[in-house]
Specification:
With 506 residues, this protein is of the alpha+beta class. The protein is built from 17 helices and 16 strands. It has four domains: 3-117, Udp-n-acetylmuramoylalanyl-d-glutamate--2,6- Diaminopimelate Ligase, Chain: A, domain 1 (3-Layer(aba) Sandwich), CATH 3.40.1390.20; 142-251, Beta-Lactamase, CATH 3.30.450; 261-417, Reverse transcriptase/Diguanylate cyclase domain (Alpha-Beta Plaits, 2-Layer Sandwich); 421-504, Orthogonal Bundle (Arc Repressor Mutant, subunit A).
């Protein structure tokens, strides 16, 4: 309903005193008040009717009209009952603020105006609601038939006369009506916002979140609209309908992801229990990963935040989207998360992950996100070694956000990670098996003595002090180690072998 449709009703006898240019403005409701500052009760588009009971002097008109202007009302209707006519100071204040002002004669009650306007407003709202409901039913049916957001958003937005874009928390474009604005800048504004909706990009865009599972901004999508400067939130009319369309797509995707995570959990259990190549191959295929591909393992941990338990999984899934559309992500027993992804040719995986982590940083608050990345590994048989590399790289990650690749580190752990599991087990058993068996039979503590001896660099006195034994007792134990294993701890090569075997046993 437009303001002129209210003013042009003959039986109301309303006289427009100022603001003729506002006759075509829309009216959302009629609000009656005699508060000196009604701004807290205004949502925009109202016709405010007042009996002027708030006016004690000319200066009060400026206060009242300024409050109405801040609330973006469409017009003010003032009654004649108190003063017999409209005070000139009220007319001047309305003219200054660009608000249409009309006079309500004494013989016309505010109830008559409300009764004349409301039926038209209700009829228009009912018609609009029917249109929205019909469109929503069509969208639900289309999505059930397989249509996706990227197909549906442009025509629905065009029907509503809106431009909008959907982004992930890293700024990755998901759908939109035309060439998208820079997603990275908008994503940073979305993640850092203290409340939503909010405007960004120098006020050009209005941002609103679309939560998924888990409900955290780091795991949410957001929709960017071309901002309406007349709307308090910046959101244009019809934005809510498009947001509900995006929410429907997100809900469907969350169901798909829930199934994919169960399959990834199965592959994670196979890796944890030392499953053979055949089982790993089947597990990779179930996750959509080609078994003979070049893989990269990624271990991540998000700490320092009170977050849902699966937030780290969602964050790593989003970060890995910068590498490939297909990844398997599963929790690890130590609160970390494992991700397996196929590395496309020519893609610098650590660099892509660093860019994704940098994009997510504004949403971390006091949290810390550490990621370890393995070197490329060809075929599923190499996955256990790649996971070990990623774990070691993760332990080396320091700082609020860090992405560390195993190729940047030098350590015997990386070398051991590449040795097949059966070879590692045979090496450990050959060196330490006799000592473990002797300890179990005689409660001799030879394995611990050997470890302490190597940790002390072969120093007899320091090792004896740490073990709280006499040096002669220590010499006897070491001689038993040498006799049982056939090795000489005076030789550097044998010390290295024992050191590696002890590391493999951890």
């Amino acid at each position: 309903m437009l303001l002129r449709e209210v003013l042009d009703q003959p039986r109301l006898k309303l006289a427009l005193l100022t603001g003729v240019e506002g006759r075509e403005a829309p009216v959302t409701r009629v609000y009656v008040t005699d508060l000196p500052d009604p701004s807290r009760y205004l949502a925009g588009g109202e016709v405010v009717l007042t009996g002027l009971m708030w006016r004690r002097g000319p200066e009060d008109s400026e206060v009242f009209v300024a409050a109405c202007a801040a609330g973006k009302v469409t017009a003010i209707g003032a009654g004649d009952a108190v003063f017999g006519s409209i005070p000139a100071d009220l007319v001047e204040a309305c003219a200054r603020h660009g608000i249409p002002l009309f006079e309500v004669p004494v013989e016309v009650s505010f109830r008559e105006i409300v009764d004349a306007v409301n039926p038209s407003l209700w009829a228009q709202r009912a018609s609009g609601l029917a249109t929205v409901l019909g469109r929503q039913r069509g969208l639900v049916a289309a999505m059930a038939a397989g249509a996706r957001l990227a197909d549906l958003l442009p025509p629905v937005a065009a029907d509503l006369g809106l431009a909008c874009w959907v982004f992930s928390p890293t700024g990755r474009p998901i759908a939109g009506t035309e060439a998208a604005p820079p997603g990275g800048e908008l994503a940073r504004a979305f993640l850092a916002a203290t409340r939503l909706p909010r405007t960004a990009g120098d006020g050009r865009y209005a941002l609103v979140g679309v939560p998924g599972r888990p409900e955290h901004r780091l795991a949410s999508w957001f929709v960017a609209f071309e901002a309406d400067p007349e709307a308090p939130s910046g959101l244009p009319d019809g934005a809510e309908e498009l947001v509900s369309l995006v929410a429907l797509e997100r809900a469907q995707l969350d169901e798909v992801v829930r199934v994919e995570r169960r399959l990834a959990d199965s592959l994670g259990r196979q890796l944890a229990t030392g499953a053979g190549a055949a089982d790993l191959r089947a597990g990779a295929l179930s996750c959509g990963l080609e078994p003979e591909s070049t893989f990269v393992a990624v271990v991540a941990a998000l700490t320092g935040l009170r977050t849902p338990p699966d937030l780290t999984v969602a964050v790593l899934e989003e970060a890995l989207r910068a590498v490939s559309a297909h990844a398997a992500v599963t929790p690890l027993p130590d609160q970390a998360v494992l991700g397996l992804v196929t590395a496309p040719p020519g893609v610098d995986v650590p660099a892509a992950l660093r860019a994704a982590v940098d994009a997510l940083t504004p949403g971390l608050g006091t949290g810390r996100l550490a990621i370890g990345v393995s070197a490329p590994a060809v075929g599923v048989a190499t996955l256990p070694g790649a996971v070990a590399e990623a774990r070691h790289a993760h332990r080396s990650a320091h700082g609020r956000t860090a992405v560390v690749c195993s190729t940047e580190l030098a350590s015997h752990q990386l070398l051991l990670a590449r040795v097949p599991a059966d070879a590692r087990e045979a090496f450990r058993e050959r060196l330490l098996g006799p000592l473990v068996a002797y300890d179990q039979a005689h409660d001799a503590d030879l394995v611990r003595t050997l470890a302490e001896f190597l940790e002390c660099g072969g120093s007899w006195s320091r090792c004896a002090e740490r073990l709280h034994v006499h040096v002669n007792t220590l010499r006897y134990r070491i001689s038993r180690v040498e006799a049982l294993t056939g090795r000489d701890l005076g030789r550097f090569e044998d010390r290295v072998d024992f050191f590696l075997a002890l590391r493999l046993s951890r």
